[in-house]
Each structure stands twice: as C-alpha cells, then as structure tokens.
C-alpha cells in the first residue's frame, strides 16, 4: 500500500501563540453570525501565523500574500505573520503541532490536515471562476484517442502525489467512471513535466487542471491535441482554522471574509501569481464538500503515517 508520510521538518519551530482563554468544542465548519465588524475579543490572539499550502519559501509567500497580510491585520486588528511551508504535506504537520493558526489550503491538503488533526475547522473558501478549476484529460491528435475508453491500456501522465487537480481529482474521475486504476492504465506521476511530456510525444494522454488546456489554446496547438474529458468543478480552496483559536474569533474571521469579499480578493489578486482566483469569490464551505477527495484518497490507499 502506498502511503504518504508526514515528516517533521527537522527540529520543530518554536512557536509562541497568543493565549486562548475561551475555547469550546470544535465542529467541522465555523458558522457565520450577525456580528461582523465587532471589536476584537479580549481572548483574541495578539498575533496570528498564516500559511498558504502549495507555496514554498518565505520570499515567494511575501511576494504573493503580503497585501493580504496587511489587509487582514487591519480588518482583524491583530498582527498577522506569514509562515512559509516547505511542501504541501507540511501544512497538516504545522496545524497538528500548532505552528500555524490559519492555512489557505488546497482541497487535497485539507484532507491530509483533517486526518492529522480532526479538531480543525473550515471558515469559508476561495471559489475559482466557473470553467477555471476542474480536471481535464487531453490526448494527442495523432494517438487517435477520443475518449477515456480509448485510453485504456495507455500511459496517462499526472502531476505529483496528492495534487488536487493533477492526481486526486483525475484519479477520482477514473474511479467514478468505473475504471481500475492499476489494471486499465499506466499512470505516471511526472510532476510539473506532465504537460511537457504530452507536448513532446512522450505520452499520449495527460490529466490535470483545465489551465493546461488553456495553455495549449494560447500556444495555438489545439489542432494537435484533443480534449477527451472534462470533470465537474473541484471544491474551493478552504481557509482552515486551528482549534486553538477562540470560538468568537473563528466566527468573526468568517464574517470578515464574507462581508469584505471584494477587498479580500483584491488583496489576494494584487499579485499576478494568484490570478487563478481571478473572477472568483469567497463562499461558505463544509467538510462534506471534500468527501469525494477523501474517498479517492482511501481508494488509492494513500494514508497518513503518524
């Protein structure tokens, strides 16, 4: 059985979190209330550590989310510190060991985090524009492959283990369509080289997010490749809150996101590197929204090893 091991990053960072004096039993989702804009509570943390899954290194994190950091500091009346992660699985470790307070997570990373620490909660998510976040399967025109049935017995290039749109999503599509992942296809996880492998003729089919089809169109190559399958929209990227945060703060954080949607999105989109959220929105999310991702993890035999 294949397993994902969550490895601690050497010695754990020493993290000083603000005291949380009022804490109630956590659920899966924070409920919005009518208290948006109220003054900060006495038990709110003096500072917050905020991380973004999928962004490696402090320099890139600052480049892409410094404006968001400043916006949230003003809205929350609390210092916000950006916390860099080294890879997608480390966000779950950081939450589990209370190194971070809030993570803007991918759907796949949320599944890992929820299994590592069930007490974490959701507080809204960033929904991408319609038609901009779903799985596609692309075949070369020369291959003659016109459907998933035609791809049986062929090599399918995917991204890397645990990628929402480049592994878990397309694997879930194939399972839902009744295929056996081990018997029907030779699935190769090629990381960021999957599109290049398709363009160079090294594979006949690739599966990943629709942005790669858009790239093919922008390069004027749509006559050389064929879109053979489009999946349903993938879940929103959720804001994940550590259970160490006070309940009043969790509710107010969601209220602030919902009441200030345009300003929050503008802060995120101030960096062109975040253009995947262009024309998107802030929506309420629930744990059930990620059940399909969770089920695919189980089918793939991917587990968290403590």
UniProtKB/TrEMBL annotation:
PROSITE patterns: PROKAR_LIPOPROTEIN (PS51257). Residues 1-26 form the signal peptide. GO terms for biological process: transmembrane transport. InterPro entries: PhnD (IPR005770). GO terms for cellular component: ATP-binding cassette (ABC) transporter complex. Belongs to the phosphate/phosphite/phosphonate binding protein family. This is Phosphonate transport system substrate-binding protein. It comes from Salinicoccus kekensis.
């Amino acid at each position: 059985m294949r397993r994902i091991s969550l490895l601690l990053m050497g010695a754990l960072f020493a993290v000083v979190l603000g005291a949380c004096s009022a804490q109630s039993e956590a659920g899966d989702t924070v409920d919005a209330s009518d208290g948006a804009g109220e003054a900060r509570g006495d038990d709110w943390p003096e500072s917050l550590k905020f991380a973004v899954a999928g962004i490696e290194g402090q320099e890139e994190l600052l480049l892409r989310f410094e404006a968001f950091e400043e916006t949230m500091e003003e809205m929350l009346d609390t210092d916000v510190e950006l916390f860099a992660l080294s890879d997608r699985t480390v966000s779950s470790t950081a939450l589990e060991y209370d190194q971070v307070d809030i993570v803007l997570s991918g759907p796949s990373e949320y599944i890992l985090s929820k299994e590592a620490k069930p007490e974490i909660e959701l507080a809204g998510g960033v929904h991408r524009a319609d038609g901009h976040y779903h799985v596609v399967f692309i075949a070369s025109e020369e291959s003659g492959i016109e459907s998933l049935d035609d791809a049986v017995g062929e090599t399918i290039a995917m991204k890397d283990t645990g990628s929402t749109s480049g592994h878990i999503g397309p694997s879930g599509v194939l399972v839902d369509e009744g295929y056996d992942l081990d018997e029907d296809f030779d699935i190769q996880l090629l990381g960021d080289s999957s599109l290049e492998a398709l363009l160079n003729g090294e594979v006949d089919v690739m599966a990943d997010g629709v942005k790669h089809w858009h790239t093919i169109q922008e390069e004027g190559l749509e006559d050389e490749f064929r879109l053979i399958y489009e999946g349903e929209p993938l879940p929103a990227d959720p804001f994940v809150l550590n259970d160490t945060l006070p309940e009043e703060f969790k509710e107010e954080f969601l209220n602030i996101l919902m009441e200030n949607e345009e300003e929050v999105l503008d802060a995120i989109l101030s960096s062109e590197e975040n253009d995947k959220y262009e024309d998107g929105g802030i929506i309420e999310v629930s744990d059930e929204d990620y059940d399909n991702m969770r089920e695919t993890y189980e089918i793939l035999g991917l587990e968290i090893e403590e």
